[in-house]
Prior knowledge:
Elements: E1 2-6, H1 10-22, E2 26-30, H2 33-40, E3 48-52, H3 60-70, E4 77-82, H4 87-96, E5 100-103, H5 108-140, H6 150-167, E6 170-178, H7 181-188, H8 190-206, E7 213-218, E8 221-229, H9 232-245, E9 250-252, E10 255-257, E11 261-268, H10 275-291, E12 296-299, H11 308-324, E13 327-336, E14 342-353, E15 357-359, H12 365-371, H13 374-394, E16 401-405, H14 408-412, H15 416-427, E17 434-439, H16 440-445, H17 447-460, E18 463-469, E19 486-489, H18 501-516, E20 520-524, H19 529-537, E21 542-544, E22 552-553, H20 554-571
Parallel strand pairs: 1-2, 1-3, 3-4, 4-5, 11-12, 14-16, 16-17, 17-18, 18-19, 19-20, 20-21
Antiparallel strand pairs: 6-8, 6-11, 7-8, 9-10, 13-14, 13-21, 13-22, 14-15
Helix pairs in contact: 7-8, 13-15, 15-17
Amino acid sequence: MQVLIAEDDPISRRLIEKTLAKWGYDVVLAQNGQEAQRILRGALAPRLVILDWMMPGTDGLTLTREVRKRGNDPYTYIILLTAKSLKQDIIEGLDAGADDYITKPFDVHELKARLRAGSRIVELQSQLLGMRDELEDQATHDFLTGLPNRLLFGDRLTQKLAEATRHKNMLSMMFLDLDRFKLVNDALGHNVGDKLLVQSADRIKSCLRDVDTVARMGGDEFTIILSDIHDPLDASEVADRIVQSFSPPFKIDDHVLYVTTSIGISTYPKDGTDVDTLVRNADTAMYRAKEQGGNCYHYSTEMLAGAPSAQMKLENALRIALDKNEFVLHYQPKVNCKTGVMLGAEALVRWQHPEMGLLFPVQFIPLAEESGLVVPLGEWVLTEACTQNKKWQDEGLMPMEVAVNISVKQLTHGDFVATVKRVLEETGLNPEYLGLELTETTIMNNTSQAVGILQELRAMGVRVSIDDFGTGHSSLSYLKNPPMDTIKIDRSFLKNIASDPDNAAIAGAVIAMAHSMNLRVVAEGIETLEQLDFLRSLNCDEMQGYFISRPVGADNFKQIMVSEEAAADAKGKRAA
């Protein structure tokens, strides 16, 4: 054990040092009170201390009082070395906080006995401190996952709200629930369920920053605090990463489990200014995500606080938004994997709400699907994208494909082929510059009808892409006569693609299969140079994602097109 000796008399100091070193102690020397003071204030201060009472400047009694004022965590055992032998002097030293005393001249055997007693007390204090820390950890952390529990989460959210209020920052809170977790427990037992929770916690943590907090609230429920965010999109990016992180199967014992998660998001100060309100609104939004089939996230707003009247209010607002033209399109570039030349764009709808600001599809498309408003909204998106694309061409910019997303209700409502044909005729856009994107699930749920419609569209010259390829859970029989020109690899297969052999194998197989069928492949969700380089090595055709560009408004996208034209002219060539 390390011992500090503060003694201004060099003979006494040398004698004590030599004696303690022989007994196996690690001795630290201080020639006066000021030097001892610096050592005791340091990060690695000895916990066993012998202080000479009478030293010039700062004496041992003063140092004792200073140590005790700092607290006893960890505990420092102090022995005063003094020539004073009067009872009142000894009492004064003990009242100051000394644990023991030795009078001069001292007997080495007495010194050894007192140090041995002090060492035992220090070790006991260390054990008690460890037990206290362990009990505190058990009280504030989940025993299974090691994550903060409900109690610590509440404390941290309170603290982060105070910081957000003080600095006038935004803060987002997420409420996560594993979809159909009860089936795992019922079918495979709680041991497998517990292992699933541990692996789920690890996947969630891998999607967060060090400054974020994830906690287990109990059962299969988790909560997350995203502090110091500047845009609601920041929360959606994290939520999207978490949803995608659950795409690969969980391998537990001899079982391969496919489990998804539903996420609700509330934001300070829009959705609440206190812990209870934010948690309640995020919880409500999470159930909204479950109502949409799970495996997704949903934002909370004051209008979506859970009451049916709130849903009716938002539905009415959607109808009014269509009449007042409150929707806008943002465009995300698609580029050639090898050359980086821009080949086209995907049009993504946003709602410029007069009160809540810019809303993203996840905040209103589910309700539009439920109410049937997705049909007129989808037609508006189709018309606006075609109109804007033709406008760019009329301005002399290079012709390129702009793709729009089509829902299952649009595809099966009325005569969709006639609608597309009419929009193309009205806007004057050549069909080869229109792309339609549908999810694989949309085709699989309506295979015969969907394939027939898509084949008619392709016969018109419209290009068709299958989005989220690889996530369907039904037959792939439609690939015998593929009704599309392009396959978009689901972003879940691109996560850690350079280091995950399973994801790399899947991506490589999809690309090889598509090329053998004369289909092009687009990789979406590219966020890193590592992903880009690896996809190039697999001969992927096109890519899009935040690494290339976020979705931007029409004016900003035009500037990107102008820059592309200038770069192409500078090289003496244009993209085909």
